[in-house]
Amino acid sequence: MRIWQKPVSVESLTEKHTKTTVGHLGIEFLEVGDDFIRARVPVDHRTVQPYGILHGGVSVVLAETLGSCGAHYSIPEGQRAVGLDVNANHLRAATTGWVTGVARPVHRGRTTHVWQIDLSNDAGEATCVSRLTMAILFPRQ
Predict the structure, then answer these.
(1) Which listed CATH number (3.40.50.300, 3.10.129.10, 1.10.10.60, 3.40.50.11260) goes with 10-137?
(2) Among 49, 64, 73, 111, which is 20 to 30 Å from 134 by CA?
(3) Which residues fall within 8 angstroms of residue 124, CB to CB, at 6 or more apart?
(4) pLDDT at 9
(5) Active-site residue (options: 11, 15, 31, 64)
(6) Measured CA distances, 54 to 14, 118, 134, 137, 140 (Å)
(7) pTM above threshold 0.85
């Protein structure tokens, strides 16, 4: 079942994030499904630690970007989604290629959302698992 309550596409996500951290890091939106968003980040000079592995904070940027977009586009116009908590478990280092993330909702309530974001390398091996909790804010009366 399609969960999006606002128009969303790879093109609109890409345009909205062009002059942001997402654009600076080279994150690319790949797919919007009925209940998920997929994007990837390159493992290159912009995103690695001095030790040559993908910086854990970049994994969190990708995860939070995906979960925040998911929450934003799955709530009615006029409501806002803001981050409350992000958790990330780094499972495997990435040294080359791309890390791809997929965000899916675990819980979409009236006042909170929880999104699961799974990141993997080009071989399909898990590199990071993340959970993002979002507060859903209603317009002030």
Answers:
(1) 3.10.129.10
(2) 49
(3) none
(4) 98
(5) 64
(6) 22, 15, 25, 33, 41
(7) yes
Of 114, 10, 11, the C-alpha closest to 67 is 114
CA separation for the pair 120, 64 (Å, rounded) = 15
Residue 141 has pLDDT above 90, yes or no: no
The backbone region for 124, taken as left when phi is positive above 0, alpha when psi lies in -120 to 50, beta otherwise, is: left
Joined together, the tokens standing for residue 4 give 């999006």
Q: Each residue of 21-66: pLDDT tens digit?
A: 999 999 999 999 999 999 999 999 999 999 999 999 999 999 999 9
Give first-to-last CA distance, the chain, whole Å.
32
Going by their DSSP bridges, the two strands 126-137 and 80-90 should be labelled as antiparallel
- Give the domain ranges of the chain: 10-137
- Annotated active-site residue 31? The verdict is no
